[in-house]
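Lecture notes, unit on protein representations.

Consider one protein chain, 396 amino acids long.
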Amino acid sequence: MAATTRIEDIGVALGEDFPEIRASVRRICASFPGAYWRELEERSAYPTEFVKALTEAGYLAALIPEEYGGAGLPLRAAAAILEEIHAAGCNAGACHAQMYIMGTVLRHGSPEQKAQYLPKIASGALRLQAFAVTEPTTGTDTTQLKTRAVRQGDHYLIHGQKVWTSRALHSDLMLLLARTTPAEQVKKKTEGLSVFLLDIRACLGKGLEIKPIKAMINHNTTEVFFDGARVPAENLIGEEGKGFKYILDGMNAERILVAAEAIGDGRWFTRTAVAYAKDRVVFGRPIGQNQGIQFPIAHAHAEIEAADILLRKAAALFQAGLPCGDDANMGKMLASEAAWHAAEACMQTHGGFGYAREYDVERKWRETRLMQIAPISTNLVLGYIGEHILGMPRSY
């Protein structure tokens, strides 16, 4: 790196970046207070109005190039958008996938595919929210997935099952990873997997069935069953058999963006905890005066700031086209843990009132816990660090 490179150039500048975007996102989120999210959760409903507001403001098209109707912003700007959504007490889980899923189409799709889909995704005419990778029997061991795509003339027939495919009932398109060459016929286990852009509207009821999964949080997640669903061969993304590489290519962006949400959650929790600790008086003094209350909040704040710096570095490396896997993985792990520590401190500060739904602490507490599991678990990140960064033997 040249000696003239400023610290800002590698994404570790402190302070609030993209202030105008952040202020605009805050204004949008102000129209969707805690009561909105609590009411949705009671009905297990999708935040249609919230997603519409973000779409109309152009924020879900932040990463789509201007030539296709998007904003053409860097990954760090998208991270700032998601961070602010979560810092405002809202949840971007209903729509964040569009930001990183479309990257697979953008980087590996044909010119015809980009021209056909990206402008409609940017305008909101099409929703690309569903990402079908995980399966019931393989989990994060993606190379062993069982879903098959068999070429038959000008179509592929899809057979198999996916799980934890969030937003499938509220999306027009689905990015699907399936095996096109049997595992026993490939030299490397990462070969023989292909990516498809599946039109849910055309396949639903015709070899495609989607069932909601009731979960701890209102994440609109589903099981997806394929029994001969037909996907046009022209909807194959890139080359057949190279889909695993395409998916990996987008995972660093996914981890950086989800980690930004964790940073936002952490900021919401610390701000909420501090406000309550100042106002709540017990034994004739505000509880925030007690170190038992003050120190966990302060410690979580320090962790959030540290994780934020690493994520800014990861985003800058991604934008520059440089290897960012180490920082993306570590940043995601640290951000999710910092957010959880902030959540615990906030819950403990509120005591019994933390369980009252009107405070929104318990809702955000449940939502934040997920981030240590998805999109990659803490243990897998630790395994990655041990093997790929520290050079120890593979542990799994």
